[in-house]
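Course assignment 3, question 2. Fill in each field.
Student: A.L.
Task: Predict the tertiary structure for the chain below.
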Amino acid sequence: MPTLPAAKAIIGEPEVVEDASIAETSAAWAQLKHAAIAIRELQIKDGSIPDAAHHPAAGEHVAAIVAGIRALSPAFPHDAEYLSASVADFQRWAESGFGVPDFLDSLVAFQPQQHRVDGIRHLVVFPMYTQNGSSDRLVEALIVQAIWPDFIAELEAGDYGNKLFVSLRLVDFTPGYDTNSAVLFPETVAMREIPPFTWGAIFQDREAARYRRVVRAASEVTKLDLPAEAARMLDDQDLTEQTFVMWDIIHDRTHMRGDLPFDPFMIKQRMPFFLYSLEELRCDLTAFRSSVAIQERLAARVGSGDELSDAEQQMLEHAALVQYAVIFDRIFRFAITGSRVRNYDGLGGQLLFAWLHQRGVLHWTDTQLAFDWAEVPDAVIALGSAIDDLYWRSIDRPKTAHWLAAYELVSSVLTPNPASVWARGLSDEVLSGPPKGYTDAVLDDEFPLSMFFEALEKKMRDVIASTAGIRGTDD
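Answer field:
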């Protein structure tokens, strides 16, 4: 088995970094990042490096990564156990011949949910795939920063507890995150067994930055007269980031709450993609409905003469902004982002737009988009209630009957593909057969884009593409 070369034989030990706020400009980070990018070229899909001819170079890259982690570790004392375990995992991977990497030990030691302090930073290095990025388990290295303002801490400590939720900002990263990926999930890491997962992280700075770019362009294309509060977000990255934190913390906890007819982690199951659309939309509409309730409760207190704390004032402000964010992100970005192959987020955006249009609170008249904002909350909440009713009724239904009822709900709002066998009616052979037959009969683009969205997508295509790899510091 090859042994790990001494770091000094390759590049030397970089200078120790003790200040996390400048870590991304240090020689240690430059060395670590360079080596991580270099070793990726030698890995195959499962993360291993099977070609023995590449092992000497891979050993040098690992040595450089290890030296970089050690030099950066003093700047991240709260992650000392994790970073020590990361060094051990990298060394074991090299010493065992660069097989499929196993970073279970360092993953278990990484506990960012225990350090939800605004501005605190983490150094993160794992072989992993990235959602909406790379499907290969390649080495990724990131420096990230927590976003945890006081009003979010108060929200989480009250009615919206979510101990697993971690909100982050990207500082610097390797190519797997120079993509559309906006999450850091432990299940993406290469490991020998699946431990209980204790956290999940979302990069709200990326979500906010692409929201601001897309909504600005889409509102110009559609001649939408944005409300003043919504317009503020387009010029204020911090404001938008915090709005997305509030949205996401409520969304995330909703997957495990409510009258659910199925395992909330249904993404691991194989079912028609429109079921995923309804679940993700249900969680977003719960965030919308909760924000309406928070806004009404706090506004009533102000109206009665009560003085709100600083955190409550921030909560009141952001509760209104979450409502705009849910609507505009869903209809302007989700609906036209990604391919038309089982695009469940896209379908959710289409469904929300059509629901609001058919209830007369969204108007596309004389090539100009407009909303009746006073009536919008009730219409949005009605869609959430329709999905809740579907779920409640389906507790007493067989799985496939739930699927059929869900299709009926979606197809009552959106027009199915003319070639759809679901729309014409599944055959008795499929209906009496296993669930796989139902899923196989769903078209990749079961609910095509409407003419409105076809035209919007063409005008927005370059803007959408430009958001890949975006971060909060980008204009």
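Instructor remarks: The chain has two domains: 7-198, 234-466. Confidence is low (pLDDT under 50) at residues 1-10.
Grade: pending
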